[in-house]
Amino acid sequence: MRILLVNDSYFVKSLRDLGCELFYASPDTLADFQYELNTITIEQILSHCPFKPDILLFSDSLNLRSVPLGLERVQIPKVFFGIDSPMNKFWQFDFALGFDLAFLDQKAVVDEICKLHPQESERIHWMPLAADHNLYYPQKEDTLYDIAFVGSLNPAVRPKRSWLLQELQRHFSVEIFDGEGHRSLPPNAVRSIYNQSKIVLNENMFPGLNLRTLEIMACGTCLLTEESDGSWREFFKDGKHLVSFRPENLIRNVETLLNDDSKRKQIADEGAKIIKEKHTIDKRAEQFMQIVQECLPDINNTVDTHRSYHFGKSFLQLANRWPDQPVGKLKDEGVRLLLDATSSKNDSADLHFELAAQAMEDDKPQDALESLKKALDCDPSCLRAHWGMFWCQKMLADYESAADALQSLCHHLRISDYDPDYLGQLAKTEEFLASDYLYLADLMEEAGWLLENGINRSGSHPCRWNAFDALQMAIVVSPKTWTALTHCADLLQRCNSPDFAIIVLGKAVELQPWNPELRLKFAKMLLSSYCRKEGMEMLVQFLTKSNDPAKWEAIEEIPISDDEKQLLLDDVHNQSRNFDFSPEAIAKNSTTRRRVLFNQS
């Protein structure tokens, strides 16, 4: 098969080893055709290709992202391979739908896009990354480390990683290699570290099967990995190829592995064996080609205006997310593609909203108004169009129409208890209070606009916001509004970001240290993470400061071990004994008196 590969070299060697005739075009210096990191058309790339390709493969990359223009015009079967999809789905969803076939590296994201677009499910496939067996393999090394971790440390960006390592360091010898200020160490250095370790730790930024998992196993080292979403179970068996952990069994699992050399070695060997047999880049390339060849006869590669919409929308997402990078130049092309799509039979409310949103980003409210009117003509119940109309009319100082748009949104959300006078006030207000942002966040939650991974919308035009962005603004306006903090923490917890939920709720606890219910909620969050020590301390504070007669019953449902329960009882008893029982202290107020008597009981 003849393949034109654009952007990243991930599959170059493996596809050529399979006998494919491959032409690699990229800003990469090793490319067959190297182009500058500026806008280039796919026709220009094709003019340098020495053959007519059977497929065009666009392979995404973390370090290199250059999207050629004109993909929607090319009548060659187009295939997309996307990586880090949980953090990039805000643009990869639409980008993938512009191709004839798409492969994404995480199962949960593939399941999500297929649920949203069931008619496209046959052309969206899960294709995990794989280990490069030329870089990661077993080699004879002296064993230097009990537990090793290779990866960057930044508590502000990756708090869970820091908490996990701190918890391990309380009990074991852990060697951390953080890249010495760089993003990562060279592969040969990483390979040596893996081979010098009894156990290598893997921590996930997002649920799924990451590349580190496969590279550790490829080196014949025992992998200790977060259970995460369990998608790795489709390929590996816990206790045979690797060992998984959760916060509650982390220490126990590590102790078992360190105390049983034979078992640990057996797991490491089985892991290396299955990686070599099924999960190298060569094996992944074989799987890729098999799917492509099966699907190729059914691919309709004619020009489709749906492609213009999907590419246009994804281009705008890329340009707005990384305006200073080469993809930032895709904005004008994104608008052009969306305008092209409006002239087709595929006109839709979503399409016109995207044009309106970009017009508001570019401070063109009159253009936005025209697009929003068309969106509502296409679908009078389009929630985003009503939301956009509110902000657009505010920009145009038509406050009555802005209030009407917000009322229409409430109507379509079936919210009947809104206050028209308050909505009118929101329409006129130039600077919102924290309570205003909280109200808008509630509306967006009702609409289902919660949070988008990989992008912070609070810096973009409010018409693109989600509830999380409004809550962030509430906290910025009034950092001591604890209700905004608790609301934000709840939202983060719902959206599978428990580590950041802990940070936000911790700030709320600092603002209301006397609130025992808040302490209990915080304790539960901490105990479900790798901050169990801090969680136990918070439980003690809850038990010693709460007046609730049912407080002991409230902690029964919390999953703590018998040993932890005994420590909890001991700590509560000791704190009660250390309390000042002098008449002067007890007589300070009736609340203190009741608490003292209750603690004594």
Describe the overall structure:
This protein has 601 residues and is α/β, with parallel strands linked by helices. Among the domains are: 2-127 and 284-302, Glycogen Phosphorylase B (Rossmann fold, 3-Layer(aba) Sandwich); 145-279, Glycogen Phosphorylase B (Rossmann fold, 3-Layer(aba) Sandwich); 513-601, no CATH class. It contains 27 helices and 12 strands. The strands form 2 sheets. Strands 3-2-1-4-5-6-7 form a 7-stranded parallel beta sheet. A 5-stranded parallel beta sheet has the order 9-8-10-11-12, with helices on both faces. Helix 3 (85-97) packs antiparallel against helix 11 (305-321) and helix 20 (482-494) runs antiparallel to helix 21. It is flat, with a radius of gyration of 28 Å. The mean pLDDT is 91. Keywords: TPR repeat. Residues 163-290 form the Spore protein YkvP/CgeB glycosyl transferase-like domain. InterPro entries: TPR-like_helical_dom_sf (IPR011990), TPR_rpt (IPR019734), YkvP/CgeB_Glyco_trans-like (IPR055259). This is Spore protein YkvP/CgeB glycosyl transferase-like domain-containing protein. It holds the Pfam family Glyco_trans_1_2.
Main features:
alpha/beta; 601 residues; 7-stranded parallel beta sheet; Spore protein YkvP/CgeB glycosyl transferase-like domain-containing protein; Rossmann fold; YkvP/CgeB_Glyco_trans-like; 52% helix; flat; TPR-like_helical_dom_sf; TPR_rpt; TPR repeat
